[in-house]
């Protein structure tokens, strides 16, 4: 096994042997990502209605199911109806603080049991959550970004926001407001560059998941089949009051 | 398996594929479908062409400072608590994983689709070491059960019928299953879900690795990539050194064209950006993260003739459009990477000798160059490869003699005119209905599968004179 120094020295030697095929540079990063992010936010504060419409179209094109809710009560209503339709009695969710709303009050009274992700990763809490995640038919999360041009939900993992919530259940429900809408992948790039420079975030091992519709495969005779490993259904609930 | 396949000469492997009627039909349907999906996707995406140029420039720029970017990637992975391993050869990459399995008492490893682990034939090695490797991409799972190799970079089991898949799955679960893709997919979901939750190790490749942030990027449609990176206690990612890119901004350029080129999707269902092991206070994620940076012959080409092949994103678009791949499929190539780019990658990883025959498995029509998202000039490199095989005397003597003779004739006007005149006389007994259908001696091989137009009664120059 080569050491790091030996390995890199060999690469360096080869790199120096050639000027390359043509003069080229990588994509230009935003010089001040935080400012670029603020500019995107200002832009989207104006443009979100168009972005929402585009998001809905693209999301439905990839077989996502879109809902619009006026406020918390309606969100709970959508989830309650879904649970009824699926005959589901148990839900897993992100921690309430991460979700930005507490569903427990309005859903537990309907006979649904809710397991929220623990806000820290102590071993016993972790084990309990994993068991619930492996069992629960519905998982409820927020969405950090909703990308209009591709109908993609983008979720950052972290304390209180495990990825299994959006992965193990048959049905994934993501709740978001207008401040999460983005129009282009380029804007996502700006957000991720800015995120990376946030001191608090840069040390966290967060996973960023781009989710574009339900899990799918066409590996058997090119027949499109949904829900091979991840959710069979993905719902996005847009909350107007946010 | 792949080594076994490659012991037969390429022509025989190709002949087997050409006689396989199911394979012929499956290949036509699949490749035609992928071509259409890709075309439609780019048709509605006017900025696509400019993005392809940018993606190409990013790949080139990264190679120009590959040492720096690898160093930055490694620093960031380590800063986050991950471990970086430097594997000069495929053997070293494999040994590193086997050692990790031994030290951590790993019994089962779940894998998401990875060409890098195919390249080092990791599954066989794991099995021999007493570790159960489980492929979790549905296509890979099918071919693992069938003890075969992938036949397409992104659709590994396109050569299998649903009946064959039903047989394989029935044997696995001990119950007769119908040949219904929906049912079979549900069975795989159930079988593999248990394995995701039980496995000690998750093994992945990487579609990209972002140097700035120490992020590994996995693109999947099924969600197995997410399972494999989040549920087992150890995550090992194996990547070729050319997969590193500088920044998140660069990543967005690639994401915009990768899925469009592969399946015509705007984005694949899941794009997963993973950084290091689980951090304090996180509920999930592996306790350990290992990144294996693998050279295995790549660095020799940084200043070599195959440099451009290091841009490859493994999207499979060049396979679908290749008139040779469309006829013979992936297995006939006999190596991990099939198709036009596969010939170049095989030469890169295994040396020129490995592609002595494959270098000619291309009509040089240029379709691969046209669809490549990063515009790799595959035909140019194939011609260079053929030239080198000749120069290094790896090509068979007969082939070298033919080309040598041909060059003599073409570079001397007098000799050329003489040979044309001789040919016109010599061909007489063999012309049938205006075609040369069967020639004797060394020329027989050529006319066995194709006709030749005869040498014209008048040369162009003679006719030109007549016209005036």
Please characterize this protein's 3D structure.
The complex is a heterodimer of chains A (242) and B (468). By secondary structure, chain A is an alpha/beta fold. Helix content of chain A is 40%, strand content 20%. A 6-stranded parallel β-sheet of chain A has the order 1-12-7-4-2-3, sandwiched between helices. In chain A, a hairpin with a 4-residue loop joins strand 5 and strand 6. In chain A, helix 2 packs across helix 7. The longest helix of chain A is centred in the N-terminal third of the chain and has 29 residues. Chain A is globular. The termini of chain A are far apart. Chain B folds into 3 domains: 250 residues, NagB/RpiA/CoA transferase-like (Rossmann fold); 86 residues, Fumarate Reductase Iron-sulfur Protein, Chain B, domain 2 (Orthogonal Bundle), CATH 1.10.1060.10; 55 residues, no CATH class. In chain B, strand 11 and strand 12 form a beta hairpin. In chain B, helix 10 packs across helix 11 and helix 19 packs across helix 20. Classes of the chains: A alpha/beta (242), B alpha/beta (468). At the A-B interface, helix 1, helix 6, helix 7, strand 9 and strand 10 of A face helix 3, helix 4, helix 5, strand 1 and helix 6 of B. Strand 9 of chain A pairs antiparallel with strand 9 of chain B, so a sheet runs across the interface.
